[in-house]
Amino acid sequence: MTLSSEIVVLLNHLTNSMNNVTSPGQHAVLSTDERKAAMEHLKASVEVLASLAEAVRIDAASRGGAVAETTEKGEEGAAAETTKKKEEEEEVAARKMTAGIAFHYP
Question: Residues annotated as region Disordered (predicted)?
Fold first, then answer.
């Protein structure tokens, strides 16, 4: 399973969790503070998944886009693209590491 498909699965799980927390049955059982805490946790989880999705997008763009741009820009452009690609890969790695620390599977 790819990272992007796992992100979609987790988003689906979070949507189901949100629906459960906001359902009339749970509304009667949970206190206001408990509902608020659950929604804050769901929001934080979605934000982490959004960061991961952005990292996947950057990774995919850097893999496919660098070759096409290099052929159009020549050697000087190729050197700049290589530097840019390395920076993007470092950013992707940093985001993945940060997201891995911040998010634990339910």
Answer: 62-93
Full residue range of the structural domain in which residue 7 is found: 3-102
Structure tokens at 47: 């934000």
In a 13 Å sphere around the CA of 103, the CA atoms on its Cβ side amount to 22
Percent pLDDT > 90 in the chain is 14
Q: How many domains does the chain have?
A: 1
Which residue is associated with the tokens 């996947």? 56
pTM of the model: 0.54
Res. 7 pLDDT band, cuts 50 70 90: confident
